[in-house]
Amino acid sequence: MQQLRDSRIFVILEFGLDQHKRLFSMLRPIHMSGDETDGTEKTHPPTFRIVEARWQSLALKLFFRALDALYRECWAKPAGERATSGNPPRIRIERADARTEDSLAPIGLWKNCYDPAWLKSLRPHVRESLKIIDKNYDFKLPAPKSVPRKN
């Protein structure tokens, strides 16, 4: 989960997406979704099934997936450099039958970062302890072709 968070922060920094730094300053590796191997069949490169974090809203998940795609693109085609050495980033796939976990939710995020059904399931004092910002977060990212790299 540390590597996943780090790769997303790399994209934020590499593309100068400063508006998202505050969000990531509030997230720890434990707040990322997990993954597990996708079945018993060995593939190369291996694929991993995403284990969803129940607290994450769909908008937040889609934002994370977009950052992951940008990271894979950076890894495959580094600007002004040779191809990146080492193992490629994990191929993480969403599956309808994937597990969902009640993982630790971060405190103090914007209301649209949290899954509404999950929030509704919480006892009022637990929901209040999350100190939710009563505004929506702007998950907007530039269109893929218009994202300039800071190099």
Describe the overall structure:
The protein is an alpha/beta fold. It contains 5 helices and 4 strands; from the N terminus they run H-H-E-E-H-E-E-H-H. Strands 1, 2, 3 and 4 form a 4-stranded mixed beta sheet that branches. Helix 1 packs across helix 3 (58-76). It is globular and about 50 Å long. The mean pLDDT is 81.
Shape: globular
Compute the separation of the termini in Å: 27 Å
Q: List SSEs in N-to-C order.
A: HHEEHEEHH
**Total strand segments:** 4
**Using only CA atoms, what is the Rg?**
17 Å
What does the average pLDDT come to? 81
- Helices, by number, come to 5
Q: Which structural class do you get from the secondary structure elements?
A: alpha/beta
Helix content: 25-40%
Low-confidence segments, ≥5 residues, pLDDT <50? Answer: none
Largest sheet: 4 strands, mixed
Strand content of the residues, in percent?
5-15%
SSE inventory with pairings:
Elements: H1 2-14, H2 21-25, E1 34-37, E2 47-53, H3 58-76, E3 91-93, E4 100-101, H4 116-121, H5 124-129
Parallel strand pairs: 2-3, 2-4
Antiparallel strand pairs: 1-2
Helix pairs in contact: 1-3
Question: Quick gist of this model?
Answer:
With 151 residues, the protein is of the alpha/beta class.
List its traits.
151 residues; alpha/beta; four-stranded mixed sheet; single chain
